[in-house]
Structures are given as C-alpha cells and as structure tokens.
C-alpha cells in the first residue's frame, strides 16, 4: 500500500462560514490555513520553493539554505527542509514570539537574530550578504515566483471549488504578497469580476505578517494590477478582531488574521449578497507568550 507522507497534508484546508460575526445579507468565509502541518499558509510556498528548485537542479538534499523571515515562512521552511533533507539557516528580527523561534529550532533550523530596529529589511540584507559569501543558497521568498505559484496551483483552486464559483471578494494580508498574487491570478482567470483586496498596516502599526514595504524592499513578485483595492489596518483594530475571532467564532488565530477579518467587515458594510473569503494565516497558539490573549485584554 502506498501510504501518504506529511507533504500530502499541506493544503486542502477548510473554508468555514462565520456564524456570529455577520453583516447584512453577506456571507463571510474564513480559510483556515492554521490547519496546515506547520501551522500556517506559508507551508504551501515553502514546499513549492524547495520542490521546484530541486526539479530545476538548483539545490539538492544536503545543501544549506538561507532565508530571511519574520516567522511563519521560517517555520514552514524549517519543516520542509527537515522533510527533504536540507540544512536551514533562518534570519529574523528578535521581536518574533518565542513560540515561533522554538518551532523553527524544533525542526532543526539554525536561527540568527537581528534587532527589532533592523527589522525584516536588516534580516534580508544579512541573508544577501551571507549568500554572497557562499555560506548557503537562497530561496528568496520575496522574488521567488514559486511562492505565488503555490497559491495559483492550490489556494486559488480550493477557494473556487469550496465556494462553488460564487466567491465575489477575496481579502488577504500582504507580506511577501505571494498569497494574494497567486490567488488573484487564479480567481481572475475564472471570473474577472472577483474583487481582490489587499491589507497593509497603517503607518506606525506593527502587525506580524502584514507589511508596508519601503520602495527599495518591495517584493519583486508583487504586481499592483492584480490587487483591486488596498486597505490600511490599524494595530488595535487587528488585535481586537483577532480576539473577536476566538471569542465569537472559536477560531484562535494570529494578529494578521484579525486584520483580515477587519478588512472583510469593511467590505461587507459596503455591499449586499456578497461571498467574502479571507485568509486566516495561522494559529493563535504561537502568539500566547506575547500577552495578546491575556485576560486583561478581554
């Protein structure tokens, strides 16, 4: 008998209707990416980037790979590297939650931290410097077209099938922008009228998984034309809606997922009879040490 491996459990995540958080005649649907084996939407591109690079002969098991990450991609790549036999070096801001760091280490990755002030820009610069010195090979999620390809091949088709082709709006946080690029490409190929809504943080907000990139660091995989509308999300708004998901819907998720709900609700207040799907990027248990779910926050 040909038994499945852990790789086969990536994707095919549930799309669930919100029962209590509702706006008029609209249907709000949450895509539960925390159900992936390493706990986030990033499992999809992590495996995609490794397998496609292998197929092209760019990397081979035993190689050392280097990637800058703010968290979820690092965990997913650490898992994928363990599955396929690579050494993984991850560079990340020291402000990431302890759960994220420990998860990466559990999969066998080596962590290098930069300061909060250096941020992801500093992490990316360090990764580039190490690769230039020959210390490992790059995947570069920000410029790697196998990142959005994963969502064109899996996430987009799942959303189309799970809604019976009735989806009218897709709402997604934007970090590397791989999710929104790949899903947009697929959904627009099925129905050009579907509205693609991206989320970025307000100035001054620090929301894990959502970025407003300086021009010099904007991911090269991003294509503005694939996004119909961009909404700014506030820090408090994202955190409050994250807690609403848990308290009112039983969905324990991270802050970017709260931002996605907030964005979906903004859209829902403007339309009628819409089917609005948003990405719940990961699980909330990897944020517990941050105090975002502490009793005094309720």
UniProtKB/TrEMBL annotation:
Catalytic activities: O-acetyl-L-serine + hydrogen sulfide = L-cysteine + acetate
GO BP term, example: cysteine biosynthetic process from serine
InterPro entries: Cys_synth, Cys_Synth/Cystath_Beta-Synth, CysM, P-phosphate_BS, TrpB-like_PALP, TrpB-like_PALP_sf
GO MF terms held by the record: cysteine synthase activity
Biochemical pathway: Amino-acid biosynthesis; L-cysteine biosynthesis; L-cysteine from L-serine: step 2/2
Protein's UniProt keywords contain Transferase: yes
Top class in the EC scheme: transferase
Record key words, sorted: Amino-acid biosynthesis, Cysteine biosynthesis, Pyridoxal phosphate, Transferase
Protein's name according to its UniProt entry: Cysteine synthase
Species, as recorded: Kushneria phyllosphaerae
């Amino acid at each position: 008998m040909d038994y499945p491996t852990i790789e086969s459990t990536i994707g095919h995540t549930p799309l669930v209707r919100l029962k209590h958080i509702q706006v008029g005649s609209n249907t709000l649907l949450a895509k539960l990416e925390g159900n992936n084996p390493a706990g986030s939407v990033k499992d999809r591109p992590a495996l995609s980037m490794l397998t496609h690079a292998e197929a092209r002969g760019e990397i081979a098991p035993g190689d050392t790979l280097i990637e800058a990450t703010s968290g979820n991609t690092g965990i997913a790549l650490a898992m994928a590297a363990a599955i396929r036999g690579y050494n993984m070096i991850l560079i990340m801001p020291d402000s990431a939650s302890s759960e994220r760091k420990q998860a990466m280490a559990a999969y066998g990755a080596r962590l290098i931290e930069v300061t909060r002030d250096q941020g992801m820009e500093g992490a990316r610069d360090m990764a580039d410097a190490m690769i230039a010195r020959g210390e490992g090979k790059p995947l570069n999620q920000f410029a790697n077209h196998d990142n959005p390809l994963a969502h064109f091949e899996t996430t987009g088709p799942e959303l189309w099938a799970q809604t019976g082709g009735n989806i009218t709006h897709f709402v997604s946080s934007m970090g590397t922008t791989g999710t929104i690029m790949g899903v947009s490409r697929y959904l627009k190929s099925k129905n050009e009228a579907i509205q693609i809504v991206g989320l970025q943080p307000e100035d001054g907000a620090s929301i894990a998984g959502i970025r407003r990139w300086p021009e010099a660091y904007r991911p090269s995989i991003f294509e503005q034309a694939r996004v119909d509308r961009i909404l700014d999300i506030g820090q408090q708004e994202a955190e409050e809606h994250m807690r609403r998901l848990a308290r009112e819907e039983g969905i324990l998720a991270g802050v970017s997922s709260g931002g996605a709900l907030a964005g979906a609700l903004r859209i829902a207040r403007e339309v009628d009879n819409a089917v609005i799907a948003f990405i719940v990027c990961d699980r909330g248990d990897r944020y517990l040490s941050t105090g975002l779910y502490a009793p005094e926050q309720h």
